[in-house]
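Team,

Forwarding the record for the chain on the shared tracking sheet. I've put the sequence and predicted structure together so nobody has to dig through attachments.
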Amino acid sequence: MPTNKRVAILVHDGYQDLQFWYPLLRLREEGVPVTVVSVEPEKTYLSQLEYPVIPDQGIAQVQAKDFGAVIVPGGASGKYLAEEPRMQRFIKDAAAGGALLTAIAEGVTALSAAGVKGSVTVKTTNELPAFCRAFFEALKK
């Protein structure tokens, strides 16, 4: 699924493993340019099961205007992102720029804190296949 829209996946400590890795790997599989973004660029963030991820970029290194879509996975990560002013500014700026905003489970907390709603959201890990199908369909538009 070739697209020129870059996707940002926001992450922080306590992210829900499948809700982060499943969309990330599906995006990579489809050849969609995806960037993992967190607060600190070279910090290792741990999932609920303590699986590590090092973001591609820190929030200070990216601009919302460069992304056509944002994914916020669930887990405690959503709460931490909701409390981080720079992440909130990024989400607000992405919304203002017309980016596709999406969230999984507790990830909606970060969108709500920014005062925006997601175009594609699901409440559980079991809904990830449907989430990805809907996300890819929306990304084509």
